[in-house]
User: What shape does this take?
Amino acid sequence: MKKSILAFFLLTLIGCVGYVVLNRGPDVAYEKMVQAKVTQYVQKQYGKAQIVEVRPAYADTDESKERRHQIAVKLKAYKQDQYMLYRLKKNKVIELGLTETLPIPKQ
Assistant: This one.
């Protein structure tokens, strides 16, 4: 009886850990919300005509959901492969800085 309870407990624990690890990918709804807020912020700062491209830049290495979901914005004033990275911090848009290397989006 003890062995079967222990086996059930271990299988449940392994299943829960596996579920958490596998579902750590991008949250599409959250990403769209972040992208909308960042786009609105950039339009307010630089004007709608200055925006060339807005795209997600999911950073899988970060632990926090806010840090993983970044948005890359390319403006007309930037060089060929330069993007400004933005993310949310306590529901406010913050600039992370210019980058030329974007994380490959996870599909």
Remarks:
- The two ends are 44 Å apart (CA to CA).
